[in-house]
Amino acid sequence: MIASFVPQGAGTDPKVLGWAASHPLAESVVRPLGLHRAFGAPIFLGCVFVLGLSTALCAWRRTRVAVEKAAALRDARAGREGSSAERHDVRIPVAPGIEDSAVLDAAMRGLSRAGMRARREADRVTAISPSWSAWGSPVFHWALFAVMIIIPAGSMLRSSGQMGLVVGQSRIDEPAAYGSLVAGPLHRWPADARTIRLDAFDLTYRTGGVNRGPTPTVTVMDSAGDVVASQRVYPNHTLKSGALTIYPADYGLAVPVRITDPGGRTLHDRVQLMDFSAQTPDGTVPVGGKPSVDDTGGPMIINVSVPLDRVEGGLAARLPNTPRARVTVTREGGTMIVDRIIEPYGETLLPDGSVMRIGGIGYYARLQLVEDPTIPLLYAAIVIAMLGLGVATLMRQHIVIVHHDAQAGDLVVRARLWRNVVTNREELVSEMTAALEAGRERVT
Amino acid sequence: MNTEVILVWAALALYAASTAFAIIGMVFERAAHTDRAVVVAAVGLMFQSASLVARWVRLGHGPYLGFYEVASALVLFTVGTLVYAAWRNRRLAVSLALVMPIALLLLGGSMLALDAEVPMTAKLSSWWLFVHVTFANLAFGAFALSFGCGIAYVARTRSGERWAHRLAGLPAQEVLENITVRFVLVGFMFWALMIATGAIWANEAWGRYWGWDPIETWSLVVWILYAVYLHARFTLRWRGERLAWFAIVAMPLALFALIGIPAAFNTPHAGIGGLGKDL
Who contacts B190 (Cβ-Cβ below 8 Å, separation ≥6)? Predict the structure, then answer.
């Protein structure tokens, strides 16, 4: 509960640093307690472990109870009432002169008024739950335990990362292709590597009356180059291929950058990706580092950005009609030695005589790729848990058997009220007594 | 004033009238007034439903977005559950005096934000939203009734003869406790379905089924709290006033999770972000 009010993340995370700066007193308590990484802290995980063990123990106990209850319900339905039921006998006096069938009809009415669905048999009235009603709770608890096992197993088998692609580009799905990647220790990359290709990128895509925003069209191909799956990817419309799911994460700008030395040898040849950033003067920030070339003065760090219009809005809204690239070259100490604007497909001379050429300025799509083979198991466990919980919640568990002991002149009630019943034994007796009295008045 | 606004004001007025009838019926022990409270609440429910339908047609999405829509939907399901419970078991009609004031205050408060319209976004445009929110509303309706029954139980236990007489129309204490437990159990089930559908949807939409964001965390906290209640009842055999107090204290936390957390934090469930790499 406390951790939900504290930003979660590493100590260098900007939102953590920002919160710490604005709440110094609270930070003096929060940081030593490790509350910025509360949900991965050993004490929290220890508590979760204990919760899992107690869930398993509870499931075991509920299973044993369910076995007994289910047997009792089956016996009751088959007319094999166990001797333990006799301990719950209640006898309601019946006025003389009322026929057996009228007595049982009154009992039916009484049970109905008490909220029970009764069944009339030849010589008795019964309200007995089906035997499967006893299994809701154990099924729920075992399925919940399964969820608690599958989740950590999934985190060990799962990989989740982001990959940037420009239109027409394809990359083999392997760790080197990702910009950021978190893979569990048991995750195995497929032996027959698949390829991810970006076929198209629509800045806006409207369907179902909703603007889906920047929408890439992604294709997954197998190792033979055959298309396995291909579709537009937008929120709530992900691309699935086996255990792999591809989501749209973000988008940015892409500029091919090529640097050749005076002899024509290629020193650098990559597509520079840029993300939108409201914090930088130009509005864009390079992704994945800046190229660097050496000359007699030492390394020159080259920064390529695309200056955006100074208007309200995000990347697409602020992109100029004719975007151009801004190239700055600095020494390692920060001394600026070049600051130029280059047209698309233009070039500029660097201080050491090398030439930097840029291509057309376009968009790149950042895709989130998640591979988790445990998801179907998790979904199955959740569904089973919900079914078990539904049975445990909605199904009443009771055995009520009423028969007329004509010799003694009593209505004999055997009631075992276990769960989800909205009445009690006193109320049952009261309702049946009232129904008998009403029946007697009709007779007289 | 457009139709939608007129309808919701009419609903508010009817809920106020129902509250008045219910309180008068309870305090002055007039069963006829209590019955009128149920009928008036049912009529108010129809007006509020019509108002929300009109808004749905106008905006193109259901009552899921923004404080007014969320709070109004919670009130709709609470009053709906109350009316249904009173119809099924006439003895529960007295609980309107305890629960309708909450519904009235919540609807009245939500109308301060009546004009705020939140458009449907691509992130939320999914049938999962309808399913997820419906379960949340059903859960809260059940929890609200457990709250009312808990208050009635405690009031009858602690009050003098006069108040015990006023609440005599309710079921016997043991039966009232069983009913309270039943409402908690139903609410627990729907709350679990809300969490489960939310997790499945989050995985389908964002690639992670749980991110410990404040709404997810507090939903789980409330669910575990009610799980403790149920285990206290079924395993530890808790009975009586302490169980009733548990139901009374837990419901405001559920309301906080549904309304307070979204008001305090800039989420629902922030999406995933990160950096790519140059090629």
Answer: B135, B136, B138, B139, B142
